[in-house]
Write a structure and sequence with these properties.
Elements (H helix, E strand, L loop, with lengths): L21 E3 L5 E3 L3 E3 L6 E4 L9 E8 L3 E9 L4 E5 L12 E3 L7 E7 L5 E6 L13 E9 L44 H13 L8 E6 L30 E2 L4 E2 L7 H11 L16 E6 L9 H13 L4 E4 L3 E3 L16 H19 L3 E5 L6 H6 L11 E3 L10 E7 L17 E4 L2 E8 L6 E3 L9 E5 L1 E5 L3 E5 L2 H18 L5 H10 L2 E2 L11 E2 L2 H9 L4 E2 L2 E2 L6
Parallel strand pairs: 2-5, 3-5, 12-15, 12-16, 13-15, 16-18, 18-20, 20-21
Antiparallel strand pairs: 1-2, 4-11, 5-10, 6-9, 6-11, 7-8, 7-10, 13-14, 17-19, 22-23, 22-24, 25-26, 27-28, 29-30
C-alpha cells in the first residue's frame, strides 16, 4: 500500500518584518539584511521586488530554516537571470552552489533544495548575460514552497531502502557531512519521479486510474521470482491456442514459459527500472508502480540473440496484449539511411533484405494494434569502437542502428539516448539529432573535488586538480537471484521512457500509441548540452508529462492553491 501523505501546503514565514530594502555589498552584489526564517506552518511565500535601476546584477537573499526542509524555489523575471543556493555568502566567500537553475533567455527558473535546521543559506539571483536591461526588467518574483523534509505534499517518497541510490528519480542536494546519503549528487537533475507519483496517488484515490499497462521486455530473461519484481510480473494465456497454461512471460528461444533458470542480469535490470515494486520496504522503486512486466527471453544459452527470435518476440507481445514494448538492444550497421530505400535495397544481401521485411511486418502489426515501441540508441559512442569497428560508428547520422532503422516513419517507435548526472551526453551513448529523447543512463564516473568552504562537490576536468576524486553515477536496479546492482548504458535509459509511457497509459487510456509518444516528447525538458546529439536536446521529465496529461493540480480544502504575498 502507498502511504497517504496528505494534501497539505506549508508556507515560508518571515522574521520580525517583511522583505526589506536591499543593501549593497563590497563586491557589488545586493544583500538582504533581513534573515528569512523558513517554517512549515503556512502557505508558500511570494516575494515581489520593485524596479530599481541602481540595483546590481547580483542579488542575494539570506534564509535560515527553523526545521529540516525540502523547498521548491522559482524565479520569474523579464530578463535572463539565474538562481543559485549556497551555504556561504558568495559575495564574501569563494563558494560553489548546492543547486542552481540556469536556463537560457527569459525563462522562469526553478530548482529544488534541501535545507538543514539552523544552517544559513543564500539564494543568489544573478544576471550572467551581458545584455543590458531596462529598470522595469529588474523586477522579479521569487517563490518559496518549503515542506518538512520528506513530507512534501507535492511529492510521494517511497520507503524502499535503496531509493537513495536512485539519483535519476530523486536528486538530493549534496552535503559532504551527511552520512545517510548513499549517492552524492549535484546539478539538481532528475526526472521528477516523486512529484509524478504524488499525482499517481492523487488520481488513484479519486478512482481516475485505469487498467495497468503491460510492458514487454524483449531482452535476456527476467527473474520472475525476484522479491522486488514478482508482484508486477504479467500473467496470461497464449492467445489463439489450445494451450491454457498460465504464463508469466515467454522463452522465445525454447518456445516455452519463462523459468527462473533462464533469467539474465540485463533483462532483470531493465525490468526493475520499469516496474520494481515500490513502497514495499524492499530494494528499489520502479517508475511505473502498477505496470506489469511481460518478460520475453531472446537470448540463447550462449547469450546470443538472433533477428528471428526478436521478430518472434515482437509478434508474441503484440498478440498477447502488450501496450508497450521495450527493446534495450540493437546493432550498428555500416549503411546510410538512404541505403534502405526501396530503390537501393536490391543492392543489399538477400538475407538482410529478408530480415528487414520481417521486422517491418512485425512493426506494422504493432502499429495496427496500437502498441508503442521504445528502443535504445546504442552504446557505440566511445573511441574504442571507432578502432575495433569503424570510424564514427556511434554517429547515427552516418550509420543505421538495427532494428530501429528497419521501421517506417509511420511506426510508433521512440529512440532513446543517454544523459549523465551532469546533464551531458555520456561518452558511450550513440547520438544524432534523430535520437528522439534522452533519459538517465548513468555514467561510470564523474571527476570532482570538494569545495573547502561549502562541502559541496565541484565537477572538474580530468587531471585538473590533485584533490579530485571520482564517483560512480550508474543506474541502480534489480538483477537475478534477488540481488541489486548498478549498471549503465542506453539499455538503462530506454526503460525509463517505457516506464513513463506505462504510467501515462494507465491514466490516459484514451491516448493512442502515437499520442503517447507525442506527449512524452512534447513535455520533456530541453538541455542545451545535449544539442545536437539528441533532437532539440530533449530529456525525459516524468512529472511534467504526467501533470500535463492529467491536469493534476495540487489542492487544499477542495480548491487550487494560488497564494501571493508581497
Amino acid at each position: 500500500m502507498v502511504n497517504n501523505i496528505g494534501l497539505l501546503f506549508f508556507m515560508l514565514t518571515l522574521g520580525k518584518s517583511d522583505f526589506k530594502p536591499i543593501a549593497s555589498s563590497r563586491t557589488g552584489a545586493s544583500i538582504n539584511k533581513t534573515t528569512i526564517n523558513l517554517s512549515s506552518d503556512q502557505n508558500p511565500l511570494v516575494i515581489k521586488s520593485v524596479a530599481n535601476a541602481k540595483r546590481g546584477s547580483h542579488q542575494i537573499i539570506k534564509v535560515k530554516p527553523k526545521q529540516n526542509l525540502d523547498c521548491y524555489i522559482s524565479l520569474s523575471i523579464d530578463a535572463d537571470f539565474d538562481i543559485y543556493t549556497y551555504k556561504k555568502n558568495p559575495a564574501l566567500n569563494r563558494a560553489f552552489p548546492l543547486t542552481s537553475s540556469t536556463k537560457y533567455g527569459k525563462k522562469d527558473e526553478f530548482m529544488f533544495s534541501t535545507f538543514e535546521k539552523g544552517q544559513s543559506y543564500y539564494i543568489s539571483i544573478v544576471k550572467n548575460s551581458p545584455k543590458r536591461i531596462k529598470p522595469n526588467q529588474s523586477k522579479f518574483k521569487l517563490t518559496f514552497e518549503p515542506f518538512p523534509k520528506n513530507q512534501s505534499s507535492e511529492m510521494l517518497l517511497p520507503n524502499d531502502p535503496y531509493f537513495s541510490n536512485q539519483w535519476h528519480l530523486y536528486n538530493l542536494t549534496y552535503d559532504k557531512n551527511d552520512s545517510n546519503q548513499n549517492v552524492n549528487t549535484f546539478l539538481n537533475f532528475d526526472i521528477g519521479a516523486p512529484e509524478a507519483w504524488w499525482c499517481n496517488e492523487y488520481l488513484t484515490d479519486r478512482g481516475q486510474n485505469g487498467k495497468s499497462s503491460v510492458i514487454a521486455v524483449i531482452d535476456g530473461g527476467v527473474d520472475i521470482t525476484h522479491p522486488d519484481l514478482k508482484d508486477n510480473i504479467w500473467t496470461g494465456k497464449l492467445n489463439n491456442s489450445s494451450n491454457k497454461q498460465v504464463l508469466n512471460g515467454w522463452d522465445v528461444v525454447n518456445s516455452k514459459p519463462n523459468t527462473p533458470e533462464r533469467a539474465s542480469n540485463h533483462g532483470t535490470h531493465v525490468a526493475g527500472i520499469i516496474a520494481a515494486t515500490a513502497n514495499n520496504n524492499e530494494g528499489i522503486a520502479g517508475i511505473s508502480w502498477n505496470s506489469k512486466i511481460m518478460g520475453l527471453n531472446i537470448l540463447s544459452e550462449e547469450e546470443k540473440a538472433s533477428d528471428d527470435h526478436i521478430i518472434k518476440a515482437i509478434n508474441f507481445a503484440v498478440k498477447n496484449g502488450a501496450n508497450i514494448i521495450n527493446m534495450s538492444l540493437g546493432n550498428p550497421i555500416k549503411l546510410a539511411q538512404s541505403d534502405l530505400s526501396k530503390a537501393k535495397m536490391k543492392f543489399l544481401d538477400k538475407d538482410l533484405v529478408k530480415t528487414i521485411k520481417g521486422y517491418r511486418k512485425a512493426f506494422s502489426n504493432a502499429r495496427k494494434k496500437d502498441v508503442l515501441i521504445v528502443m535504445a540508441a546504442g552504446n557505440y559512442g566511445q573511441v574504442d569502437f571507432d578502432v575495433s569497428k569503424w570510424a564514427n560508428i556511434g554517429d547515427l547520422s552516418r550509420n543505421i542502428i538495427a532494428p530501429y532503422d528497419y521501421a517506417l516513419k509511420t511506426d510508433n517507435i521512440i529512440l532513446v539516448g543517454s544523459v549523465a548526472s551532469n546533464m551531458r551526453l555520456p561518452s558511450y551513448s550513440s547520438h544524432a539529432s534523430r535520437v528522439d529523447i534522452a533519459a538517465p543512463g548513468g555514467s561510470r564516473q564523474i571527476n570532482y573535488e570538494f569545495d573547502p568552504i561549502t562541502g559541496s562537490i565541484i565537477p572538474v576536468q580530468d587531471n585538473e586538480s590533485n584533490e579530485e576524486e571520482t564517483r560512480s553515477f550508474q543506474i541502480y536496479s534489480t538483477i537475478k537471484g534477488g540481488r541489486y546492482a548498478p549498471s549503465l548504458g542506453t539499455s538503462m535509459a530506454a526503460p525509463m521512457v517505457s516506464g513513463a509511457a506505462g504510467m501515462l497509459r494507465e491514466f490516459r487510456n484514451d491516448l493512442s500509441a502515437k499520442e503517447v509518444k507525442k506527449m512524452i516528447l512534447n513535455h520533456s525538458r530541453s538541455f542545451e548540452t545535449l544539442i545536437p546529439y539528441v533532437e532539440e536536446g530533449r530529456t525525459l521529465h516524468l512529472a511534467d508529462m504526467i501533470f500535463e496529461a492529467t491536469n493534476c493540480e495540487y489542492q487544499i480544502d477542495g480548491g487550487p492553491v494560488t497564494p501571493v504575498i508581497e
